[in-house]
Amino acid sequence: MRNLIISAILFAAVAVSAAPAKSEAIPEAVLVRAVAWDLSAKPATEKEWVDRVIAEVARAAKAGADIIVFPEGFADGRSLDAALEPVKAAAGKDRLVILAGSAFQEPGSDQAVSRARFLIAGSWQWMDKLDLTPAERARKPPLKPGMRLALLRFRGAVVAALPAYSLLKPEIAASLKKRGVQLVLVSAPADDALGSARLSRAAAGRAVELGAAVVIAPPLPEAPSLHLPVQKGFELAPQAPAGRDLRLPWKKLLDLRAKPDAAEARPFLDPSPYYQVEI
Predict the structure, then answer these.
(1) Torsion sign across C-alpha atoms 270, 24, 159, 149
(2) 227-252 CB burial, b ≥16 within 10 A, e <16
(3) Is the distance from CB of 253 to CB of 183 less than 8 angstroms?
(4) N or C: which end of the chain has fewer CB within 10 A?
């Protein structure tokens, strides 16, 4: 019952148009920096941790990254509030930054959450993690799940930013399909080999199912970090960039929505209402 309620909320969470504004110039490519984060490095102070986050954002911005995605758990239980304004200054204008959520408890609250922050169009938005892992549900106190799937409008595309576990959920995929999402940014834990394998397989399937690009941060050593639609005009071989910068064929991704009558462009946007029968 809870999943049905959440699914209904997901579909109504954000109203976005699947078509870019006519006056908006669409770039040929967009560069995504998938930040690699060493969780074994323990900063001595809060300032040291914030400075490390700022340095990652500044390096990515200097390299020309349009989108900067941090891995899940990079905050190691800290609130992200102290990093928000410094990151905004380091990122500059017209850049999307994803600070993935990490479990923390607000002072005075009896419940913990995992809250991600999104810097878009010069302001910060947020989303609490929807789908909790068994370990997160077993915490004391347990995490409180979110109820809102945030979709972002970035350079003419509809973008979803998800923690890793949500990519595995079919109800999330159904909601993304309904909205015609063109890019899925996945913040993954950096130290779970089995979870990474599951995530990589799910990402490849979602790219085909949604007709969207799926990016995993941090890059996985065992598998590609970028999965593209299997459509005419796209490179069909798995994408395996050598570094942390992933170049997305932006105009091609958006063109998949620009031809609504093309047989190969939109099959993933029209789910059929199948009836369940036992045979």
Answers:
(1) negative
(2) bbbebeebeeeebeeeebebebbbeb
(3) yes
(4) C
The pLDDT assigned to 190 comes to: 62
Domains of the chain, CATH where assigned: 27-105+112-259 (3.60.110.10)
Q: Yes or no: say if 134 and 161 are a contact pair by the CB < 8 Å rule.
A: no
pLDDT of residue 262: 52
pLDDT of residue 15: 36
Q: Report how far apart, in Å, the C-alpha atoms of 142 and of each of 136, 139, 185, 258, 262 are.
A: 6, 4, 26, 44, 47
Strand-strand pairing, 67-69 and 96-99 = parallel
**DSSP class per residue in the chain:** -HHHHHHHHHHHS----SS--TTSPPPS-EEEEE----TT---SSHHHHHHHHHHHHHHHHHTT-SEEEPPTTTTTT--SHHHHHHHHHHH-SS-EEEE---EE--TT-SSBEEEEEEEETTEEEEEE-SS--HHHHTSSSPBPPP----EEEETTEEEEEEEHHHHT-HHHHHHHHHHT--EEEEE--SS-HHHHHHHHHHHHHHHHHHTSEEEEESPPTTS-SEE---STTS--SPB--SSSEEEE-HHHHHHHHH-TT-TTTSGGG----PPP---
pLDDT tens, position by position, 171-225: 899 889 888 899 999 998 766 677 778 888 899 999 988 989 999 887 665 556 8
- At 8 the pLDDT is 40
Number of residues in the chain: 279
Q: Dihedral, CA atoms, 95, 37, 28, 234, nearest 10 degrees? A: -150
Residue with tokens 């994408």: 239
